[in-house]
Amino acid sequence: MEDGLAGHLTEPDALAAPEADMARIVAAGVETARRAGVAPEQVNVVYLTGGST
């Protein structure tokens, strides 16, 4: 941050921040499994790898 620039982040805000992204990621995984003919209960684990996108 620049000198003199400050930000305030509460714990609830920090915990809520990724919710929309997580919901979109989960929906994409469910849709991928559906298209592959795999039921969600057949999936034991999902590993997400990659960069910051």
Q: How would you describe this structure to a colleague?
A:
This protein is mostly helical and 53 residues long. The protein is built from two helices and no strands.
Percent helix, as a range, is: 40-55%
Q: What separation lies between the terminal Cα atoms?
A: 22 Å
* Total count of helical runs of at least 4 residues: 2
Low-confidence stretches: none
State the shape. Answer: elongated
The sequence of SSEs as H and E is: HH
Number of DSSP strand runs? 0
**Radius of gyration, rounded?**
17 Å
Content-based structural category = mainly alpha
| Relative strand content | under 5%
Mean pLDDT: 89
Main sheet summary? none
Summarize the structure.
The chain is mainly α and 53 residues long. It contains two helices and no strands.
Which key phrases capture this entry?
53 residues; mainly alpha; 2 helices; elongated
Fold blueprint:
Elements: H1 11-16, H2 19-35
